[in-house]
């Protein structure tokens, strides 16, 4: 009997869970960071980053195909021994927990800065904590439905975001490669981490009902993320001048202020709230993977007790600690370094270990 048969997810849920784990808070500052490093050729950097993340994603699927009923938490003790495997599992649990905390805290900071500047930080945390717990206490199938629902409910906001293109200055993008390939490649240090989230395939694969669709699904999910990033970045590049884009901290939000109609003003409020709801997918996905791992580590089937502890600590911490913009930037850089190991380096190493072990075991049998 399949270990996770009762929580099978459909192909579409698999795609939206992967995609939902990738679209994060870094989206609001991505155009300015790209403009500062790679200039107006930053869209090329995004495409190269997509290709890199897709290559590593395919290695993850290749590894998981050899053990279709196991998550990464089952796999690591098998190949690295109980002690080392448990240690690596703890690293993955901490990574997912850290990613959850960064995305959640940054979302609270954005709402506090843009919409509720006089509201205490802990009240916004309490406001978000209740729906977070309500969805995350369920199993992966319910979270997959939530990820799919929120995508279809708010994808129209992306079309609305393209409204400023009517004032686009297309010459901003010309000439292509005006500074050569060096700035484009330097931008990879930052943009490859914008695609973090594909590593969650380590958890999702055994839940996928039709595993033969895993490769197709992860290609679609990464490509959906690339399309959204390209639209956001190109809209900002076409609206702001090359000199301005690098000096605007949150260009993704600032460009929203020009969206205005006779029958409705402040569309930026609607788009920002929709964006926060879409961000809730990444909080829920990452916190679920962390408490799912910790419960598996302790031999428990129910992850809800661990989730309660995480949410309680989060709420209590908000009464005493409210990170500044600079601290959030530092925490985000820490996530990038952490993500380099868990999402890019480790999957390659694990694929090599699994391939060599299986090759040698077959040779021994022969």
Automatic annotation (TrEMBL):
<feature type="transmembrane region" description="Helical">
    <location>
        <begin position="185"/>
        <end position="207"/>
    </location>
</feature>
<dbReference type="InterPro" id="IPR004761">
    <property type="entry name" value="Spore_GerAB"/>
</dbReference>
<feature type="transmembrane region" description="Helical">
    <location>
        <begin position="42"/>
        <end position="62"/>
    </location>
</feature>
<comment type="similarity">
    <text>Belongs to the amino acid-polyamine-organocation (APC) superfamily. Spore germination protein (SGP) (TC 2.A.3.9) family.</text>
</comment>
<feature type="transmembrane region" description="Helical">
    <location>
        <begin position="12"/>
        <end position="30"/>
    </location>
</feature>
<dbReference type="Pfam" id="PF03845">
    <property type="entry name" value="Spore_permease"/>
</dbReference>
<keyword id="KW-1133">Transmembrane helix</keyword>
<feature type="transmembrane region" description="Helical">
    <location>
        <begin position="269"/>
        <end position="293"/>
    </location>
</feature>
<feature type="transmembrane region" description="Helical">
    <location>
        <begin position="119"/>
        <end position="136"/>
    </location>
</feature>
<keyword id="KW-0309">Germination</keyword>
<feature type="transmembrane region" description="Helical">
    <location>
        <begin position="305"/>
        <end position="322"/>
    </location>
</feature>
<protein>
    <submittedName>
        <fullName>Endospore germination permease</fullName>
    </submittedName>
</protein>
<feature type="transmembrane region" description="Helical">
    <location>
        <begin position="148"/>
        <end position="165"/>
    </location>
</feature>
<keyword id="KW-0472">Membrane</keyword>
<feature type="transmembrane region" description="Helical">
    <location>
        <begin position="83"/>
        <end position="113"/>
    </location>
</feature>
<feature type="transmembrane region" description="Helical">
    <location>
        <begin position="334"/>
        <end position="354"/>
    </location>
</feature>
<keyword id="KW-0812">Transmembrane</keyword>
<feature type="transmembrane region" description="Helical">
    <location>
        <begin position="219"/>
        <end position="240"/>
    </location>
</feature>
<keyword id="KW-0813">Transport</keyword>
């Amino acid at each position: 009997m399949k270990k996770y048969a009762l929580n099978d997810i459909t192909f579409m849920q698999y795609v939206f869970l992967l995609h939902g784990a990738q679209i994060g808070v870094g989206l609001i500052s991505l155009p300015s960071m790209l403009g500062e490093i790679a200039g107006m050729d930053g869209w090329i950097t995004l495409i190269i980053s997509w290709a890199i993340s897709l290559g590593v994603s395919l290695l993850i699927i290749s590894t998981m195909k050899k053990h279709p009923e196991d998550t990464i938490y089952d796999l690591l003790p098998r190949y690295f021994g109980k002690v080392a495997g448990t240690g690596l599992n703890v690293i993955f649990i901490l990574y997912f927990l850290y990613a959850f905390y960064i995305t959640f805290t940054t979302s609270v900071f954005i709402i506090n800065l843009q919409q509720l500047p006089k509201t205490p930080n802990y009240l916004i945390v309490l406001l978000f904590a209740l729906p977070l717990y309500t969805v995350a206490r369920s199993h992966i199938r319910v979270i997959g439905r939530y990820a799919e629902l929120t995508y279809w409910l708010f994808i129209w906001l992306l079309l609305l975001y393209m409204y400023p293109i009517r004032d686009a200055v297309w010459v901003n993008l010309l000439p292509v490669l005006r500074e050569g390939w060096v700035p484009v490649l330097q931008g990879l240090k930052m943009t490859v981490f914008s695609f973090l989230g594909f590593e969650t395939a380590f958890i999702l694969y055994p839940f996928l009902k039709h595993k033969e669709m895993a490769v197709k699904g992860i290609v679609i999910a990464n490509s959906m993320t690339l399309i959204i990033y390209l639209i956001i970045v190109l809209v900002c590049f076409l609206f702001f001048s090359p000199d301005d884009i690098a000096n605007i901290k949150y260009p993704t939000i600032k460009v929203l202020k020009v969206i205005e109609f006779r029958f409705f003003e402040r569309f930026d409020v609607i788009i920002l709230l929709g964006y926060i709801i879409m961000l809730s997918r990444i909080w829920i996905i990452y916190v679920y993977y962390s408490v799912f791992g910790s419960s598996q580590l302790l031999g428990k089937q129910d992850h809800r007790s661990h989730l309660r502890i995480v949410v309680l600590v989060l709420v209590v911490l908000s009464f005493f600690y409210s990170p500044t913009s600079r601290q959030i930037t530092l925490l985000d850089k820490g996530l990038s370094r952490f993500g380099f190991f868990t999402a890019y380096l480790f999957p390659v190493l694990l694929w090599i270990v699994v391939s060599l072990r299986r090759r040698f075991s077959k040779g021994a049998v022969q």
